[in-house]
C-alpha cells in the first residue's frame, strides 16, 4: 500500500484581515485501505486562488465558508496510485476539488479524468485550461457580453485570470485591450508577451488618471479582478452601454474596515452601464463551450501562459499569501510531488 | 389669431449645486402667423422631472445638455388652438417635448395626438400613463428582470416614478413590495394607498438599518430613484442573483462634491448581483408593450395616483426645485392654462 499518509492543511481560525500561518494547522492523516469504489490519488498540483480568502470568512456567499478544523478544499490534480473503482484505473490523471493535501482518497465519483497531452503540464488544468481560463471566458462572454471591436480593460491583468482574460478578449475580436498590473515587470509582460495594446502599473499613480490616459476613447468592457479604485476609474471612462464583469476585489479581501465605493455611480444611469458580479460556480453549464474554444486556441499555439510554482504542500499557506500580495505572474500553484515543466 | 405671445423659461447659466432662479430667464416671444404644416398649441401641463437637473450640466450623458439661452425642453401636453396642418386639427390634444412654455408653435410632426378620455386628467399623460409610468415599467421588466414572487424594494417610492413602479411591481406579481420615502405622511400613503407591504422614512435613521428591518428575508429587485446610502443598504440585503435598476440618484444631483459610493460592492461578486443604470430614451421600443399593460390596468381601476400641481409657467423653476427637495407626492406638473381634476 503506497501513499498511506496524507499531509493536509486545515483552517483552524477565521482570519481577521490578512491570514497568518497561525490560522492554519498541518495534520498527517493515516489512510485506511480503500473501500469499494474509492480511489487514492497522489496530487501533483494544488491550486491557490483569490476566492479562497472569501471562504475563510463566515459571511453569506454563494460558496459555503470553509469549515473550521476541516481540510481546505479547492482545485487539485494528481495521478491515481491505487484504485478500487471500475471506472478510474491506476495511472489515470484526475482533477478534483478535495484541495489542500498531498494524497486524497475518496469515492471515484468525486474525480474527473483529464487527458494527459504531450508537453502540457498538468498544472495547466488548474489554470488556463481549467477554472481560471474558464473564469476569463465566462466573464467576457456571458457576464460582460463582449462584442468584436470592443475596447476591453482588465485589472490585475498579470494574474491567473487576467492573463487568460486578456488573451481571450483578443481572440474573440476585441478592438483594443488595456491592462493594469502591480509592477513595471508585469506591465512589460502584458504588452510584450500577452498582446495588450496598453498597460500601466497601478502603483505608479492614481488609477483614475492612468486609465484615462490609456483609454483616450473610453472603454466598452471592464473585467475587474481588483475592485476599489479600479472600478471608480472604469466608471469614469466607460462609453455609453458599457459592461463590467466583477470577478474579484482582491484589494479589499484582507482589509478589516470597509472602504468607500466609487464616487461616480451616477454615471451608471447617464451612460446606461451594467455591472455584474459573478463566481464561476453559477456558470458551469458553459464548460463544454469553453473547453471547445480553449482547446482549439491552445492546440493552435495561440495561448501564452506563466505559472508561479511553490514546492511542498506545507508551503500552501505561504503561496496563498504571496499570491494575494501579487508576488505571482500567471497562475499560482503548489507542487506536491512529481516534477513538471513550468513554462509556456 | 389667438395665443400669439408665448411665455418661455430659458436656462441662462449652468447651476453649480442647487439651481437658483438666477440660472433661468423668462422671455415673452411673439409668434409669427403659422407656416404651412405648423400647429399652435396652448399647453395645459408642463412636466418637471428629476432628469432635467442632469441636463443642466455640460457633462457627458445619453441626453444632450440643455443649450444656454434656449427654452428648456421636456414633456408637455396641450390643445391645438390653430392649425395649418392636414393631420392635426384644431381641438386635438397633443403630447410633445417642446417643454417649458405656455404656447408652442412648431411643425405638426413634433406632436402626437392622444385620446381624450372622460374623467382622465390630461396631466396623467405626463405621469402614470406616460414617460413616468413607462420608466417604472421598463425598470422593473427590461432592466431588473423582475419575476413573480420577487421581493422588490423601491427607493423614493412616493415620487412620480416610485408610485408607478410600486403598483406595477404588484400587478406583475411581486411577492413583497417595500418602499422608502422622505416623510411619515408619504410612508403612510405607501402602505395605505399604494399597497406596499412595508415602508420606512429614510430620514428617520440609517437606511442600512431601516431596510434590513423591513426586509428580513432579503430583496431580489431594487428600483433606485435616490442613490447614495440606499444603494449601499440594498447591497447589504440582496439575495443571491439580485438585480437593481438604477433610475435616479436625486440625492447627489445638487451636490458639488462627489460622495463616496457603497462600501460593500464586493457583495456583487459573492452574491452574483447585477446593477444596471438606464434612461428611458434607450428603451422607447417598449412603448407599445407598456401602453397595452397600463391602459388595461388603468381602465380596470387598478392604478392609483397622486399629482402635485403648481400653477403658472412662471413658477416652473420653483416646481422643479420643490420636486428635487421632495415636496411632491406623485408626479409634479406645472399647470399653464385650463383647470383640470387632480386626484385619482
Automatic annotation (TrEMBL), chains A, B:
Occurrences of domain Enoyl reductase (ER) (ranges): 17-334
Keyword set includes Oxidoreductase: yes
Example of a GO MF term: oxidoreductase activity, acting on the CH-CH group of donors, NAD or NADP as acceptor
Pfam entry (one): ADH_N_2
InterPro entries in the cross-refs: ADH-like_C, ADH_N_2, ER, GroES-like_sf, MDR_fam, NAD(P)-bd_dom_sf
Keywords noted in UniProt: Oxidoreductase
Protein name: NADP-dependent oxidoreductase
Organism field: Arthrobacter psychrolactophilus
Amino acid at each position: 500500500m503506497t501513499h498511506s499518509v496524507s499531509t493536509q492543511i486545515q483552517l483552524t481560525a477565521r482570519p481577521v484581515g490578512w491570514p497568518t500561518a497561525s490560522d492554519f494547522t498541518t495534520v498527517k492523516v493515516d489512510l485506511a485501505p480503500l473501500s469499494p469504489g474509492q480511489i487514492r490519488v497522489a496530487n501533483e498540483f494544488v491550486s491557490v486562488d483569490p476566492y479562497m480568502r472569501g471562504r475563510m470568512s463566515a459571511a453569506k456567499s454563494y460558496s459555503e465558508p470553509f469549515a473550521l478544523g476541516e481540510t481546505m478544499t479547492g482545485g487539485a490534480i494528481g495521478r491515481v496510485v491505487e484504485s478500487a473503482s471500475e471506472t478510474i484505473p491506476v495511472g489515470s490523471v484526475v482533477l478534483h476539488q478535495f484541495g489542500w493535501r498531498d494524497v486524497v482518497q475518496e469515492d471515484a465519483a468525486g474525480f474527473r479524468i483529464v487527458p494527459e497531452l504531450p508537453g502540457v503540464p498538468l498544472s495547466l488544468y488548474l489554470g488556463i485550461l481549467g477554472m481560471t481560463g474558464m473564469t476569463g471566458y465566462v466573464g467576457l462572454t456571458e457576464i460582460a457580453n463582449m462584442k468584436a471591436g470592443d475596447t476591453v480593460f482588465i485589472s490585475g491583468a498579470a494574474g491567473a485570470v487576467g492573463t487568460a482574460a486578456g488573451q481571450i478578449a483578443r481572440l474573440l475580436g476585441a478592438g483594443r485591450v488595456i491592462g493594469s498590473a502591480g509592477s513595471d515587470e508585469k506591465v512589460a509582460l502584458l504588452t510584450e508577451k500577452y498582446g495588450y495594446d496598453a498597460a500601466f502599473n497601478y502603483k505608479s499613480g492614481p488609477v483614475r488618471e492612468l486609465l484615462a490616459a490609456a483609454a483616450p476613447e473610453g472603454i466598452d468592457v471592464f473585467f475587474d479582478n481588483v475592485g476599489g479604485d479600479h472600478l471608480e476609474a472604469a466608471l469614469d471612462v466607460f462609453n455609453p452601454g458599457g459592461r463590467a464583469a466583477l470577478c474579484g476585489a482582491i484589494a479589499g479581501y484582507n482589509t478589516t474596515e470597509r472602504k468607500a465605493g466609487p464616487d461616480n455611480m451616477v454615471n451608471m444611469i447617464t451612460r446606461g452601464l451594467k455591472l455584474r458580479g459573478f463566481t464561476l460556480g453559477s456558470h458551469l453549464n458553459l464548460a463544454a463551450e469553453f473547453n471547445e474554444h480553449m482547446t482549439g486556441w491552445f492546440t493552435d499555439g495561440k495561448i501564452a501562459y506563466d505559472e508561479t510554482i511553490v514546492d511542498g504542500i506545507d508551503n500552501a499557506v505561504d503561496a496563498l499569501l504571496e499570491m494575494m500580495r501579487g508576488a505571482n505572474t500567471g497562475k499560482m500553484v503548489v507542487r506536491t510531488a512529481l516534477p513538471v515543466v513550468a513554462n509556456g
